[in-house]
Every structure is written in structure tokens, then in C-alpha cells.
Model the fold of this input.
Amino acid sequence: MMDLPSRIEPLLAGLGYELVALERAGRGLLRLFIDKPGGVTIEDCVTVSNHLTHVFTVENIDYDRLEVSSPGLDRPLVKPQDFVRFAGEPVMLKLRVPMDNRRKLSGQLVGLDNDAVKLIVDGKDVSVDLRNVDSARLKPDV
Done:
């Protein structure tokens, strides 16, 4: 089976988009989250959906429904470069292994340094091994 994200990423990059995440859900649903500088509009989602529908048909990729959407204000940080790109932003991390009896950390993202996510939590510098990050999301101002 081919690696679908590695097939899709260059196609999206050619259109000016970044693949944030790809999920296969029940009943043949293929869900993509895309981003671009300045944010994603409904027209962007339609453009990507139409393009990928054609590509998937030509390449005989099995799916029943395709959903394309923006990652939202609480965008997941998936790739190492995301932790660099969104430095300075408020984030929420969920950890695989608790640190100081905490599995969730909320703070300001400082960046990534040698596979360690750097953030400021309650005024203190905190370093989390990237492999210990179960999930990370931007934390929109409420």
C-alpha cells in the first residue's frame, strides 16, 4: 500500500497548500486538513477537493467520500517544522508520559531545539521530548 500523505503533499504544495493532517474514517471517508499562509477559504477547499478527486480517480485510490477543510483555530501541530513556524503562539500539549504528574501542558510555544519542544508554562521554561508529545494544538485566544 502506498503512503498516501507522501503522494498528496507534493500535489498540494504545487497548488500552494500544506497538508496538515489526513485521516481515514469509517465508511470510506478520507478527511484532509489543509493550510496556507493567510488561512484557508471555502474556495480553497473546493479547489483541492476537485483536484484530488480527479487525481484519485486517475490513480485508482480507494475512497468513498472526500472531505477537505481548514485545520481551524486550534490547528494541530503535527510536523517538527510546525513547532518552529508557530513559535510565540499559545499551545496545548498532551503528553504520552506525564511530566511532574501532568499529562497536559498549556503555555507559550518557544520553538523546537534538537527534538525538544520548548515552551513557557506558568512563567517557567519547559522542555518536552518531541517523542513524548501525543498531540499538540494551537490554543486560540478565547
In short: The longest strand covers residues 102-113. The domain at 80-138 is CATH 2.30.30.100 (SH3 type barrels.). The chain has three helices and eight strands. The chain has a mean pLDDT of 94.
